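Lab notes, practical 5.
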Amino acid sequence: MFATESLIFRGFEDDDLDHILGLRNDALVQRTLTFSAIAPAPSSKYKEYMKTFAEGSALWFSLRHKKNYEYIGFCCINLLEAKNRDARLGVTIASRFWGNGYGTEATRFTVNHAFKQFGLQRISLDVTEGNAGARAVYTKLGFKEEGRKRRGNWIDGHWEDIIAMGVLDDEWAELHPESRQL
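Output from the prediction step:
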């Protein structure tokens, strides 16, 4: 278990599944979490899928608030190409906690940890054009736009691009000198 100023980072536990299902069924979160249609997830299948996904992730952090231990969301790192030390970042924060800096805090810690402990050389992610908050966090932390899938996601009656972003280990270290000490 790890802690930052506001958050506790711990590994996946089965009791997280109800919280994860709650995130998936929150329409605000769902539009940032999936490129599928916005619709409630079938609970038993989705929980089984997420349990397998969490346990298969190279790194999974369930996020809890440091003061009251309330479930805030999760971060994960999944290896894309082990030989190339390339991984994908996933971050999901409950909508009621948006705008409090928790996404920034969670992303910064998770990326620091992944670079330092896993020896990764790049971390990538996909984000929709309409997810301005997440895009601002990623850009602020040093992720760069690497490409776009134009009109890749139909949401709320319009098309949005899916934006590929990434950051390299040396770029991260230069922008975040504290990352050398974990």
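Observations recorded by the TA: The helical segments are 16-24, 27-33, 43-56, 102-118, 132-141, 169-175. The beta strands are 2-3, 7-10, 59-65, 71-81, 86-93, 122-128, 144-155, 158-168.
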